[in-house]
Specification:
This is Integral membrane protein. By secondary structure, the protein is mainly alpha-helical. Helices cover about 55% and strands about 5% of the residues.
Length: about 775
């Protein structure tokens, strides 16, 4: 590897003549761990560590012996001072994080926002893409709250409490039964039950606000005066990691939409009754005015979602306080008026059948399918503008993931409703139960799982063929070693399983297409028949009738089992730290991106981690003028790259990038081409002084960056050997393990690449320490 980079000549700051200062000789390795987290003691390989800066959520640690390395008279000469940035508590802290499992659909739809294809010169089309994803996210909020209304208002207050046989089996519903007291009126039962979805909405609003304050309110390095930075990726823009304005607007709009959904569920039944012939004229007029007000409020919430996207080209600190406060308060006032209107005395009113307004689920399903189809058309148009052969699904990954988010929302909503109905009524059939559409949606789960089973069989067959092909490669790589067929098979099998990661787009494509088709079939069947699948197939061929009944029963059981497993896993994670860390790994991957499409998604840890890294790098290089190796493993390499993009040029001149087990191209480059595509990674290669990437063929996550050397030396080192030794040797008297994605630092190539990177960095005269400034401005 060359000692200098062709595209970057030496700039102001060669080593001073004569005796070098300790600052000019300073070298630092800033380690950033990957998914799952670790401890500073493990990262630094020393039981004695001290916190240099940070708090209990995220902090920088050093070995105790290195705490004052820059100030000491004897500088380290055997390598750079190691520092560890530990951010695992951002995603796997206390037990309440397990509740984030319930926000999984919101997280998935937020990912769809960032999966758009690369497009140059199509600004309006890009805005349309973001708008469609935000509307899909809004529909998921309405769906969640509608499911809560279905459970609390329809199944409990309207159906069970209004049916003596059902209410008699649940003593806690006795005071809501007709004729048992003031609360026995249908409208008053609905008004009381509305407290449940309203409380859920309040909880989501509170969590979103609190997590924003803890995670996403960190101001980036540049400050309000930072200049716009243009390039092939938005990750170098000063406002990318500061979405305060959009987050506040989306939080207000989604909160208002949720409260208006509850208000509509409460007031629609009373308004429908008042519109019937002979109903009270005054209440009929009030009901029409209330419904018009609810429609106007829904339009206002939709307008706020559509009106503004992300402001990345500058730090947008505007708070829109009137809108952020006024919209939810207006929706809350309409909810109170709806409860007052529904609770008005109507002596002849009785609850029967299902709660009016159950067409909501059908309308939401249709709207979500339509949004996904239009989103796919927009994504296809963007991909055709600037084709990327490595992009997953040829640019359609975003619509496919949005479809899965809608499916997850439907499954979770149906699961809650079905389990609540079974608990309230069991098999007695004294109440109508949940909407027919939810039963149809449950019935399509068995064929979807059967399709996934077929795909798993295909993957297993593919892995078997790959393993057979890899055996010859393993034998060639370890030529001269004593042959061990079992050892060869194990190494080849690990490589084959690691290669299956690249088949992920096909699995997603088949699953999303099947979900869309089966969901459309369920909607058509429920709309056309108005009956459950088993009842609709009555009178058909016995085989068809039996299949419909089996799918209905099995789907109901599976959807209930899935919901129970979700709750059980959440409870276990609340008590078990190891299970909590497993859940944290999911969020490490899924919550890297800012909440641009859904404000109730789990918080974005990178809006805290990236400013942390940039501030630390800029302040250290500004104070010492030393050389810094930014060393990132797995997801830590993604954070490192994002931090490097945000650095000012004065700090970037002092930084080398070392990535290992990195998903930068293999996962992020394929699934998020607009931000980590070939142009973006090539620009990063040119921006940093030097960059080296390590990977193994046995690694299912990390891979090569695949950048050409025309912008400087090659980034990718040839794949590392894994295991380091085939059999027993003098250096490895015990069998060497197959490391896969872990322990890259155990390979001698790691220290070698770090030395080469430091050799290509040039020290400069340290900045004056008396200025009092925290670091260079962007």
């Amino acid at each position: 590897m060359e000692n200098t980079q062709r595209h970057r000549p030496a700039e102001d700051g060669g080593a001073p003549s004569g005796e070098e200062s300790a600052g000019s000789r300073a070298a630092l390795e800033l380690l950033v761990h990957g998914v799952g987290g670790t401890t500073p003691e493990q990262m630094l390989d020393d039981p004695r560590t001290v916190r240099v800066t940070g708090d209990d959520i995220a902090a920088v640690f050093r070995r105790a012996d290195d705490a004052d390395a820059e100030r000491g008279s004897g500088a380290r000469r055997d390598g750079p001072v190691p520092e560890a940035y530990v951010w695992c508590n951002l995603t796997s802290g206390n037990g309440t994080r397990a509740l984030w499992l319930l926000l999984l659909p919101f997280m998935v739809v937020n990912l769809a926002h960032w999966m758009r294809p690369t497009a140059h010169g199509r600004r309006r089309t890009v805005r349309l893409y973001g708008l469609l994803v935000r509307l899909t996210g809004l529909s998921l909020t309405v769906l969640l709250v509608a499911a809560a209304c279905e459970v609390a208002l329809d199944l409990t207050a309207w159906q069970c409490a209004g049916t003596p046989a059902c209410a008699g089996r649940h003593s806690w519903l006795g005071f809501l039964s007709p004729g048992e007291g003031w609360w026995g009126a249908p409208g008053r039962r609905l008004a009381l039950a509305a407290l449940v979805p309203a409380a859920l909405t309040g909880l989501l609003w509170f969590l979103s606000l609190r997590t924003w304050s803890a995670y996403e309110s960190q101001q980036p390095l540049g400050g309000p005066g930072a200049q716009e930075d243009t390039g092939p990726t938005a990750l170098n823009r000063p406002g990318f990691w500061y979405g305060r304005r959009l987050g506040a607007r989306l939080r207000a709009a989604h909160t208002a939409a949720a409260l208006l959904t509850v208000a509509a569920a409460v007031g629609s039944a009373a308004a429908r009754y008042d519109r019937e012939p002979g109903g009270p004229a005054v209440l009929g007029v009030l009901g029409a005015l209330l419904e018009a007000s609810l429609a106007a409020g829904a339009g206002a919430a939709g307008w706020v979602v559509c009106r503004r996207g992300r402001s990345e080209r500058r730090l947008d600190g505007d708070a829109d306080r009137r809108l952020v406060r006024g919209l939810p308060l207006a929706a809350l006032a309409l909810l109170a008026l709806s409860a007052l209107y529904a609770g008005w005395e109507r002596p002849a009113w009785e609850s029967a059948d299902r709660l009016p307004g159950n067409l909501t689920f059908g309308a939401l399903t249709f709207a979500q399918g339509l949004l996904v189809i239009v989103l796919a058309c927009v994504a296809h148009a963007l991909h055709r503008t600037d084709p990327d052969r490595r992009a997953a699904l040829r640019g359609l990954a975003g619509p496919a993931v949005a479809m899965l988010a809608c499916a997850l929302g439907g499954v979770m909503s149906g699961g809650v409703s079905q389990r609540m109905s079974d608990w309230l009524d069991g098999t007695r059939a004294s109440i109508p139960g949940p909407p027919v559409l939810l039963t149809w949606q449950a019935s399509v789960i068995p064929p979807l799982l059967l399709l996934l089973l077929v795909m798993c069989c295909w993957l297993a067959r593919r892995a078997w063929h790959l393993a057979r092909a890899e055996r010859a490669a393993v034998e060639e790589e370890y030529a001269g070693e004593a042959g061990d067929p079992g050892r060869t098979r194990r190494i080849a099998s690990v490589r084959a399983m690691a290669a299956l990661t690249d088949r992920g787009p096909r699995i997603l494509a088949v699953t999303s297409a099947a979900t869309l088709l089966l969901g459309a079939g369920a909607l058509a069947g429920a709309t056309a028949t108005g009956e459950t699948p088993g009842a609709a197939a009555r009178g058909a061929h016995p085989v068809l009738h039996g299949a419909a009944q089996t799918a209905q029963a099995l789907g109901s059981w599976l959807i209930g089992l899935g919901f129970v497993l979700l709750v059980t896993w959440g409870r276990r994670a609340y008590k078990d730290a190891s299970a909590r860390r497993t859940i944290g790994i999911l969020w490490d991957v899924g919550t890297f991106w800012p909440r641009a499409a859904h404000p109730f998604a789990p918080p974005c840890y990178a809006e805290r981690a990236v400013p942390d890294l940039t501030w630390r790098i800029a302040t250290w290089t500004g104070a010492t003028g030393g050389r810094l190796v930014l060393s990132g493993h797995s997801q830590g390499s993604v954070l490192a790259a994002a931090a490097a993009w945000q650095l000012p040029p004065s700090a970037r001149r002092r930084v080398a990038l070392l990535t290992y087990g990195s998903p930068l191209e293999r996962l992020y480059g394929r699934w998020f081409p607009a931000h980590f595509g070939p142009d973006a990674l090539d620009a990063l290669h040119r921006d940093v002084v030097c960059w080296s990437n390590l990977y193994r063929r046995t690694d299912p996550i990390g891979g090569p960056v695949r950048l050409p050397g025309d912008g400087g030396p090659e980034v990718d080192r040839p794949p590392l050997k894994d295991p380091l030794a085939y059999g027993r040797t003098a250096e490895h008297p015990l069998p060497a393990p197959i490391l896969g994605h872990s322990d890259y630092q155990a390979d001698p190539a790691f220290a070698e690449e770090r030395r080469r990177l430091l050799a290509r960095l040039r020290p400069e005269v340290p900045a004056p320490r008396s200025t009092g400034r925290p670091g260079p401005a962007a």
